[in-house]
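Table S2 (continued). Query chain:
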Amino acid sequence: MSELAPHHRRIAWVSTDRDRPWVEMPAPQFAPMTAMPNVLLRTDRRHQVVEGFGVCFNELGWRALSRLDEGDRAAIFDELFVPGQGTGFSVCRMPLGANDFSTDWYSYDEVDGDFELEHFSIDHDRAALVPYITEALRRRPDLKLWASPWSPPTWMKTNGHYAAALPWQGSDVDNGLRPDQVGAEGTDMMIQEPRYLRAYAEYFARFIEAYRREGIDVAMVMPQNEFNSPQVFPSCTWTPEGLARFIAVLGPRMRELGVDVFFGTQERPAPEHLAAVLADPAAAPFISGAGFQWAGKGAIADARRVAPHLSLYQTEQECGDGRNDWRFARYTWSLMRRFFEAGANAYTYWNLALDEGGVSRWGWAQNSLVVVDPETRGFRFTHEFFVLKHLAHFVQSGATRIDAFSWTGHENQLAFENPDGSIAVVMQSDLADEMPVTIALDGAAFEVVLPADSFSSLLISAP
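Corresponding output:
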């Protein structure tokens, strides 16, 4: 039993539906439990610790935000990064060089054969990524940053090109790739000779050091974004064995700099990929976590079972189609539930902001948390922003996921106990009608009537 009986604990309730985001609802009250509840909160059934929530800093996001006046842009950064105000993002991602939402391809050293990296420079990043991340750090100086490349410099690759796939048939995108340069899953497009692996590890180190000089500390790296996927945009396939060879070289250099190395990002439901790298005695000691995205959600539960010592990140939320509609916001909730129930310690959204339509340099339309209208220079927060906020606002860094058990078919919720002792419960009602739900904790219960087709967050105060 809590120090104070549960019915003395206060409850705050916020609800969001398609037309009314973030509505403060009448506070329910605990009362002695007299009947079987629908959901039983079990603080004695504890699972993974949540490190935080975040988003990725991409060049096209900064371009969109730069269209806004200073006041609107400041309000967005406050809402996303000031602790306790909005989403309060605490664990964020950045690209190491160009990615699919850069303005175009670039790397930090495109001089062929420059194994000493004499021409290494992050000058390109000072136009967008450096000011973008700096604005976030002004609101959250303890923001944890991690980075991954989409492609090594072209001269380090077997095909000598940033991309690995031809444009889609009918697309007006031109990436300049020849048919003989197309890559394939299950191959190493990074040249595996030791001198290339050493130069690439040093490339990571120069990146860490250069950003530190800008006042930006990168705490962790992953060696490759989606290492199974040859793409029309910057990409590079690796085998698990190739990644192990590289991590064995990268790991010691990152350890010298106090930077963690995670395996990833993995986008296939193949737990054997991580297992293969952990079985390599030269690579395994340097791996402190693993990252999963897209179909990688089918591997994270196995990773949690076979490697409970690793920190597991959801590294990129599936990105939608640029419509930012309620349908995809509902799907976003299903992804968050899937990853957290499988054991994820952190959850990363993809594009923070984009222009209306969200089309990349390589012709792919995607969703974002903030949409900017280039003509009116106005902005709006999307449905997905509010769905994500239902978790990120109430679930503190260091929270522990707990059981929210039901035997009555009410399985559409997540629950967490925060470090301060408060409990956050996030629920979806996917019905077309209102849905009454009774929630119990330590012998007391309260009832809420969830609005139709809605999301609700309930914060039960600390005892």
